[in-house]
């Protein structure tokens, strides 16, 4: 099955089932059940009681019968399923109960933000849109990750680089975590931008050509990671660690500014060697 269009009803049904099945009845003070139960997690009846809705309503939602739950019901379901903040936002997007962010889809860097990326040197920096397209970058970013100028415009996408580029694929020391975070962000973006055909096309390509992506995508994890650290295996200066921060401009919320810096003195020395070259 492809993702060329976001079928919100089917995805809402699948997401609700997946979140229900991961819950431990013991965490809710519910009596222990026999081991040989048909499905893991909570029963539909238990979720309905926790959310204050009818069992039939939960059944119809999980069977993708075209219901559009109210804001109050979405909030109740999010609480009953103990959703994390990013999962809650995803649920609101699927239920079409969150207004779209102003700014729309963007494929080119906003000029002031592109200048800011250049001005951030010597810190590596790049400008992304919600689908991970690299819209602007500075020389330090090119030295640290990949020379974006050498890539065809259609491949200037950080998720494609991580999954498909023969050199960047081996770049991340903790590759599993990096891929999981990227997929979780992409799933959130997919629900928030259901009309973005290019994003859906990327997901279709990754699902068909990369078993790693397909496996993680099917788990339906949702997360928008704004800061953290990554260990990189650089071909010229060896292993180094970077801390990154992702900022969302108020006037252009679809463009994301990613700034990196060395995480420790040894990594800073590696940064300095790269700049010297």
From TrEMBL:
<dbReference type="InterPro" id="IPR010982">
    <property type="entry name" value="Lambda_DNA-bd_dom_sf"/>
</dbReference>
<dbReference type="InterPro" id="IPR001387">
    <property type="entry name" value="Cro/C1-type_HTH"/>
</dbReference>
<dbReference type="InterPro" id="IPR041413">
    <property type="entry name" value="MLTR_LBD"/>
</dbReference>
<protein>
    <submittedName>
        <fullName>Helix-turn-helix domain protein</fullName>
    </submittedName>
</protein>
<dbReference type="Pfam" id="PF17765">
    <property type="entry name" value="MLTR_LBD"/>
</dbReference>
<feature type="domain" description="HTH cro/C1-type">
    <location>
        <begin position="41"/>
        <end position="88"/>
    </location>
</feature>
<dbReference type="GO" id="GO:0003677">
    <property type="term" value="F:DNA binding"/>
</dbReference>
<dbReference type="Pfam" id="PF13560">
    <property type="entry name" value="HTH_31"/>
</dbReference>
């Amino acid at each position: 099955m492809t993702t060329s269009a976001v079928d919100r009803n089917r995805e809402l049904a699948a997401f609700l089932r997946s979140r229900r099945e991961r819950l431990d009845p013991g965490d809710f003070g519910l009596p222990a059940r026999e081991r040989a139960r048909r499905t893991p997690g909570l029963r539909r009846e238990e979720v309905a009681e926790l959310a204050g809705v009818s069992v039939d309503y939960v059944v119809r939602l999980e069977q993708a019968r075209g219901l559009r739950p109210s804001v109050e019901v979405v909030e109740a379901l999010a609480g009953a399923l103990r959703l994390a903040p990013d999962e809650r936002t995803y649920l609101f997007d699927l239920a079409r109960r969150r207004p779209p962010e102003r700014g729309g889809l963007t494929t080119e860097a906003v000029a002031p933000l592109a200048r800011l990326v250049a001005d951030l040197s010597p810190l590596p920096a790049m400008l992304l849109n919600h689908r991970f397209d690299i819209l602007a970058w500075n020389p330090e970013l090119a030295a640290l990750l990949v020379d974006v100028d050498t890539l065809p415009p259609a491949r200037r996408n950080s998720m494609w680089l991580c999954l498909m580029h023969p050199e960047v694929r081996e770049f991340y020391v903790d590759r599993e975590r990096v891929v999981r975070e990227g997929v979780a962000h992409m799933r959130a973006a997919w629900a928030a931008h259901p009309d973005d055909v290019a994003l859906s096309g990327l997901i279709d390509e990754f699902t068909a050509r990369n078993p790693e992506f397909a496996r993680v995508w099917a788990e339906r994890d949702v997360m928008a990671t704004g800061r953290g650290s990554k260990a990189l295996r650089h071909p010229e200066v060896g292993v180094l660690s970077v801390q990154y921060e992702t900022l969302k401009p108020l006037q252009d919320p679809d463009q994301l500014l990613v700034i990196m810096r060395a995480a420790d003195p040894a990594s800073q020395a590696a940064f300095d060697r790269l700049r010297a070259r």
